[in-house]
Specification:
The chain is of the alpha+beta class. The chain is built from eleven helices and 31 strands. The chain binds zinc ion (ZN). Zinc ion binds next to helix 5 and helix 6.
């Protein structure tokens, strides 16, 4: 059945490339091809569907069991999500007690009624948000099997992310709505129950038919195949759409090379689109009102500018379509689309759109695991949001990442910090999850520019894209790319900053005359070692840099454009808590000594980073 999938030439080329040449020797990834046909009852908010899944086991393992996600079942009283949401010390206000109070026609559900593999029924058990399947015949390495199922679902009254009738009155935000095969990778199965945090899935192709009341307008992942029958602004220019005689439309979407499929539907949507030159068609679906009309009109230019910026700096957006859709409960990323709440002021509307859009590069195409490595996806995205908002919305006169650093510093001093290796669902506090994954994650990325230099970093970002798109790199893979581009050893940086909560604090302890020279004493107070850029400012206003790489990084970053000229490189063994540097000029020449005026070093106490030299300069 693969042949019936239409794919643009570039997808075929890309797919060929990444399955053949570029995969790392020890890497493989499972492949999924979904064909689904569902019918939505817009009165009962229930849907029925069939799913054919072509599943290719590219692993070296024989699989005796498989697992499907049934996310909707989280929205039932006493589910793991409900219990967790009520018992965590700082509940998410969007959830709180709401799941406990859902009535029978408000809960979410997703049930499998029949399931066969290669035509033979298999044993399966619903364990809340996971379907556990025992296979009669194992799936051998290198083989493809076909699962056929019938399923029934009910869209929950919206509590978190997906569901019906959200706070802004959007009828359907259909995320996490279908039975989805859990990811299987080098760490085995990822059959995580749905507790609240985010997602991970294997790449594949989706062919989805949705039959729904004909007054509904849909948006989502995937290219609409029958646009000229459906209309609603999807039709080609000049096409006159024939009215249908029945009560429903069947929308037919195809999405190549994605790891999830979202859709949203509302009869009130206005649908507008912008074709980018050398870029995707960008769709906007929102309910026009006093609150939305002006800002959503302005949003179009900012969205295309952001796509353009990201394509130039982080890799070209690889799909022909992106959709910004009013729906959901804030902002959530999906392949080729985002659901965002729409009644926002302009800054907030642009900010959330840019943020969710940037996820397309990381969660979407690189395929970061948002579930076990949420910092990687939110960190890159939060970092990128600051960069792109500065470029397309409003220039920040100061340090662009300052807000992210401040949030991380608060977390580091709060006593609630947990290592970024924590699985998204397992942080003790929601607030600690947020500050850690979003802002400490962003600080990790920005510090990488400090460690290897901005020019190496920029090259490494494109290398990351070219070597790893559609292949699920991990944090360690990202660091390896940075190592290869810079020639430095950086595993210690990952181990300390991601694997521990140790913090950075360096200080300028003393600046003293030493004959005709000046002696600077630097100290390491924090437990995490880092290289130092120490800037000496002279009385005449000129500046020079003392660079102090760690011995364990086995090399130096190149001199960076726009930074003071380097006069001395002195390696620092991390085992030393203090060290001295000698400057070959008298102390009377020196005005101040400062550690990293670029602010990129995440030094949690900047008070001790600078010493002004006050000496009596003899008057003539
Ligand atoms: Zn995000």
């Amino acid at each position: 059945m693969i042949k019936k999938f239409w794919m643009p030439v570039w997808v075929i080329v890309l797919t060929g490339l990444f399955t053949a040449a570029s995969a790392q020797a020890d890497r493989w990834q499972q492949k999924v091809i979904y064909e689904m046909d569902v019918t939505m009852d817009v009165v009962k908010n229930q849907y029925k569907g069939t799913q054919k899944l072509h599943y290719t086991n590219n692993s070296p393992d024989t699989l005796e069991r498989v697992f499907y996600h049934l996310f909707n079942n989280a929205f039932q009283p006493n589910s793991m999500m409900d219990v967790r949401s009520r018992t965590i010390a700082d509940p998410d206000r969007r959830v709180g007690e709401r799941i406990k109070n859902l009535g029978p026609d408000e809960i979410g559900s997703l049930e499998i009624t029949t399931l066969k593999m290669n035509g033979k029924p298999v044993r399966f058990e619903h364990v809340e948000t996971i379907l556990e399947v025992d296979l009669l015949d194992p799936i051998l390495p290198g083989s493809t099997v076909i699962f056929d199922m019938d399923f029934e679902g009910q869209a929950p009254l919206q509590v978190r992310r997906s569901g019906r009738d959200n706070a802004e009155g959007i009828r359907y935000s259909m995320a996490q709505w279908y039975p989805k095969m859990a990811a299987y990778d080098r760490r085995g199965w990822h059959a995580n129950p749905y507790i609240g945090r985010e997602f991970y899935g294997n790449f594949g192709d989706f062919d989805v038919k949705i039959t729904i009341d004909k007054t509904y307008i849909l948006g989502g992942t995937g290219y609409l195949q029958n646009a000229n029958e459906i209309g609603y602004g999807y039709e080609d220019k000049g096409v006159k759409v024939k009215p249908v005689s029945g009560a429903t439309h069947t929308w037919h979407f195809i999405a190549p090379n994605v790891h999830d499929f979202v859709w949203a539907a509302d009869p009130k949507y206005t649908h507008e689109k912008v074709q980018m030159e050398n870029g995707p068609m960008v769709h906007f679906l929102y309910v026009k009102s006093e609150k939305t009309e002006e800002n959503w009109s302005k949003l179009k230019g900012y969205t295309t500018a952001a796509i353009q910026y990201m394509s130039e700096h982080s890799g070209k957006y690889p799909y022909d379509q992106y959709s910004v859709i009013q729906g959901g409960d804030g902002g959530m990323e999906y392949p080729m689309a985002t659901l965002i709440t729409g009644n926002r002021n302009l800054r907030s509307l642009v900010g959330v759109t840019v943020h969710e859009l940037i996820h397309s590069w990381y969660y979407g195409v690189l395929g970061f695991n948002e579930s076990s490595e949420p910092w990687l996806d939110e960190g890159f995205t939060t970092w990128g949001t600051s960069v792109v908002m500065d470029a397309v919305f409003e220039k920040d006169p100061g340090f662009v990442q300052e807000g992210n650093y401040r949030s991380y510093f608060r977390l580091a001093k709060s006593g609630n910090e947990e290592p970024l290796t924590t699985h998204g669902d397992h942080y003790n506090l929601n607030s600690a999850y947020g500050a850690a994954t979003y802002t400490k994650g962003a600080v990790f990325i920005e510090q990488m520019t400090y460690l290897i230099g901005k020019e190496n970093f920029d090259k490494a970002m494109l290398r990351l894209w070219n070597e790893w798109k559609f292949k699920h790199p991990t944090g360690i893979d990202v660091v390896r790319v940075m190592e290869k581009e810079s020639g430095l050893e950086l595993d210690w940086f990952y181990d300390y900053f991601i694997g521990s909560t140790k913090t950075i604090d360096y200080g300028v302890k003393a600046v003293e005359a030493d004959g005709n020279n000046t002696k600077i004493t630097l100290e390491r107070i924090g437990l995490m070692p880092m290289p130092l850029d120490v800037v000496v400012t002279y009385q005449d206003g000129s500046q020079e840099m003392v660079y102090m790489p760690l011995v364990i990084q086995r090399g130096s970053k190149p001199e960076e454009a726009g930074k003071p000229k380097r006069i001395l490189t002195q390696r620092w063994p991390w085992t030393d808590y203090s060290t001295e540097v000698s400057i070959g000029r008298p102390i009377s020449d020196i005005k101040s000594v400062e550690i990293d005026p670029s602010m990129r070093l995440a030094d949690i106490n900047r008070e001790n980073n600078k010493q002004e030299v006050s000496v009596d300069i003899p008057k003539k």
